[in-house]
Write a structure and sequence with these properties.
Blueprint (H helix, E strand, L loop, with lengths): L5 H12 L4 H18 L16 H8 L41 H7 L22 E2 L14 E2 L3 E6 L5 H14 L4 E5 L4 H10 L4 H6 L3 E5 L2 H6 L1 H15 L3 E5 L1 H5 L5 H17 L3 E7 L13 H4 L2 E9 L5 E10 L9 E6 L2 E4 L7
Parallel strand pairs: 3-7, 3-8, 4-5, 4-6, 6-7
Antiparallel strand pairs: 1-2, 8-9, 9-10, 10-11
Helix pairs in contact: 1-2, 3-11, 9-11
Protein name: RecA-superfamily ATPase implicated in signal transduction
Pfam family, one: ATPase
Keywords: ATP-binding, Nucleotide-binding
Amino acid sequence: MSDDDWFESAFEDEDATGSASEDGDASADFSEDIDTTADAFEDSTTQDAFGADRPDEAVADSTDAFADADTDEDVPADDDPFGSDDDPFASEESGAGGSLFDDDFASAMQSAGPGGDEAGEDFDEAAFESEIPRIDLGISGLDEMIQGGVPERHLMVVVGAPGSGKTTFGLQFLYHGLQQGDSAVFITLEQSRQAILDTANERGWEFDRYEAEDDLAIVDLDPVEMANSLDNIRGELPQLIREFDAERLVLDSVSLLEMMYDDQAKRRTEVFDFTRSLKQAGVTTMLTSEASEDNPYASRHGIIEYLTDAVFVLQYVRGDTQETRLAVEIQKIRNANHSRATKPYDITLDGIDVYQQASIF
């Protein structure tokens, strides 16, 4: 298989294994539409992400391009992820007088009132003005922590440990856009296309219907194949996004792509060029990334957070009772005012709910 046919082959595989059901036929028809688009690029050759030969100096520059980038704040290095010497769960109570860790956790979170600096930030939305078009993520509670919304066409990453809800975060982000009439693309390197459909449909998000109506494309790629074909993918993906008229895109996960490169310099260069091509495509993109084993605030390879416009950190927090809770923090969003508080959240059949008025401590 030639490198140029990476997108086409992803959908041909679906046709070969699809069922004779009406939904399967609709998916196959949609695949043929994407194949037609992909064929338009068969005669193109890409020397780099932008269709031109690059001198060695340009590669060297891109290798270290992320080194000078800065985030909104330094990443804490303490063993305690929240930088506190005190027991964070010692005597915290909700506004209703009950423990935050009663059996009915959701009720406790909803009844918890403001509690100082950690209780969230109140934004004066009436006074907020911006010439930058902005969007909501579709994550209940988290959107309220971002004044005015995330700027359109931002490249974002959600970093977290296994099971913290990264894939759900991405699916919920796409679903919110689909509800508003946006077109969307979901690229998975970890699961099959059918597994993604099943996960979304179980929550009542009707991804199969959106796919049949050509509003959604779900592409499952082997990470090795993607790494081997990355030059062509990097050149073709922006135009394919424009042809599909996609407003939102999710790649789950960038960590698997990073793992395909043993050489650190090569990894940095390839990831840098890939993220730059996504920005040029003009689509609002959400990447997912595994967290570092040593630092829950950093990605596995410590690269992607420097190349993105926004970073959301999902992590586990354990109290002295050994009861584990999930917490989210907005590490940075360029051109946006946002809360820096760490907030608890739950993953339910309705998706992710963030309790922005509650304190995790």
